[in-house]
Amino acid sequence: MAAVLLADKITHVYPSEPGRHILRDVSMQVEQGEFAVIVGRSGSGKSTLLHVLGTMEPLQAGALWLCGTEVTQLKDDGLARFRLQNLGFVFQSFHLIDSLTAVENVRLPMELARLPRRNALTRASELLDLVGLSQRSRAFPSQLSGGEQQRVAIARALANRPAMILADEPTGNLDREAADVVLGVFEDLHKHQQVTIVLVTHDTAICDRADTVWRMEDGVLSLASSITRQ
Ligand SMILES: Nc1ncnc2c1ncn2[C@@H]1O[C@H](COP(=O)(O)OP(=O)(O)O)[C@@H](O)[C@H]1O
Ligand SMILES: [Mg+2]
Question: Can you give the pLDDT at residue 230?
């Protein structure tokens, strides 16, 4: 099975606090089709790791391969294009564009990737259907519940058929019921669409659904459990 993500001894220090190591020799591997969860207390470095893995924070030390590409080989425009084509992001606070409808939000990454407009619209509608929101495609984010907004964000993350979805506390702003619906969407994507997912959370209820659970403690990542998939 091919590794979608391979991280070797990544360390991270924010320039504002030069003496403080936020990530300490973090190594991890994620295979194609794997659902990996990273759990850990608030402040342990989970978001920082996800930002480094998602190339939104520069790699300071160690090595990172995504889809077989060493990310330090990519610069500026090349890195932005790589991210657009290979990675999908889901954030705690959804980050939808308020002035665009649900279907327009989902279509946006495809427009940026210069997919023909008609194809982009068709795919955006299909993706909203996949997350159970085809009836709400013309609604604006302010007209949707938190759980619905997050499902639009998941559809948007899938737009350019990414090799991997990176999700940072995707249920953090949702009540238990909405959180379970959103988790069900991730689980379905994993089981039925073979989407590769790395999900960061402090909600240990998610761990049961994952193939692999990593634990982050004070910048140190360790493997908590792993199931062998068929
Ligand atoms: N931009 C930043 N500049 C300086 N310190 C930061 C920055 N972002 C996060 N930190 C610090 O890094 C540590 C880890 O934060 P974070 O990665 O957000 O942890 P988690 O997502 O597990 O809550 C925290 O102590 C936080 O205050
Ligand atoms: Mg965080």
Answer: 43
